[in-house]
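Title: [Solved] DUF1127 domain-containing protein 3D structure

Original question kept below for reference.
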Amino acid sequence: MEMPMPLRPANSRLSPRQSLQLDWFLAGTGLGCNPALDRPAREAEFARLAALPDGALRSMGLSRNDLPAHVYRDLFHTGVS
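Solution (posted by the thread starter after getting help):
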């Protein structure tokens, strides 16, 4: 299901698609808290990893689909290292 693009800060390092990927991950956790204050640091890590080639991500045991879970791995233990 395609959702409308959410509003995001103009200074976000993420593309609209990447921002939506993080939003969907957080929505799917059923969280009960809002980690918005922590999001800029998580976005920076997501952007750094997203800029790596696929081979570098594979060598880290990651895929592009794993990036949201990876940057929030300390809060949500979803099996991604």
